[in-house]
Design a protein that fits this description.
Length: about 475
Amino acid sequence: MLDLSKLESGKLALHPVQGDVVLFLKYLLESFQSLAASKSISLHFHSAMDTFTMDYDEERLRQIVSNLLSNAVKFTSEGGQVVLNVGRVQNPADVVVLTVTDTGTGIPSDKLPLIFDRFYQADDAATRRGEGTGIGLALTKELVKLLGGTIEVKSELGKGTEFKVRLPVSRTADLRFIPTEVGNDLRLDEPEMILQSEAAPPIVNRKSEIENQLPLVLVVEDNPDVQGYLANCLEEKYQVELANDGQVGIERAIELIPDLVITDVMMPGVDGLELCQTLKNDERTSHIPIVLLTAKADIESKIEGLEHGADAYLAKPFHQKELFVRLEKLLELRKTLQARYGSWQPVGNMEFPVTEQVIPHSSFLIPNREEAFLQKVRLIIESHLSDEDYDVVQLSRELGMSRSQLFRKMKALTDKSIANFIRSYRLHRAKQMLETTDLTVAEIAYEVGFKDPSYFTKTFFEEFGVLPSSFRH
């Protein structure tokens, strides 16, 4: 209703990008696969072109195609099929043609001229199978018109319906990265700017923490079209790693310790719920925020996802801006945790009680397992406090993690490298001793693992801005 109101007032703005519309449409269709499967309906995508670059508004095209696919699935009986076909006509004008065909109930010929009218419902029986408000097709027609296109419908009772949308082709908007397949690798190239060659850079180019400060996102998705679309959306703001199924996703998450995981729910073998539960119960990965993607948007499915430890739940087809907001909020939450976990806490000081707590003004839970993990780290450091040779390698070994796994987990929780965390803990213990004991500065330096008192004084000043001797009068 709001979109229709904006359309009527001329205030609904377009935000076109120049990209691969075929890939985008494949993603939209795949977003309805689980819904179609739940009704035993086969969903197919046909295109005369493997890729096709043109201007399109992602949100408006998503609304148009999603409305048509949703209606097609809704009014198609078990065992039927829905097809999205993409073609191109260049005479007299260059036009992309999108056709959504179903084998559903069909629409009576006398009602066809009315189906784009606002609030009109072709099935007006009190016992109609398809629920709705009669807004979707009216909005669809207005959006197609806004994009400079046309829409028409053909239908036959008992045989099905066909909607055909024609959209003009232009290439004047800003370029966005376009996924292309080269051999078995998926990569993102800038069309007309980077030559296709074997030497072109791959989409997944993992850089070191020093070289690349972008957050690392692991995308777990068994459908290559959806996988490619997600990578395309995320590439400019995140490092992207891909996994083709749930088991590989678990292995990659444990290996890489990403900042975020985005996973589909419905996958063969290990599904997204099992992946979520496995990662949340593993000490190495329990801190990683996980976003579940699924076409099943009912409350029961959302509750099930949250019960398995998901941090966010996003219905497909999702809005790109909504995905970005969700990810940004999860990263903001992590900064809040870093402020808590990165601060000095002596061994035995459990900041959180046994039950899970909610951060104020947030819907996200702080799991006690992260505080328990940090307490274990502190306890190990405390037990080796005076050992000047105790280092990251030894700590990693005691925790049963690789050095890189521990680095990424500690960086995520405290925003400090493990070496800095150890040094900071030693210095805060030294400050505590300066305040509560009569030991000399040199004695305290040795007690907290500094073999050179002058170096201890230097690092103490860097940490607190005062000299240790200021505590001795």
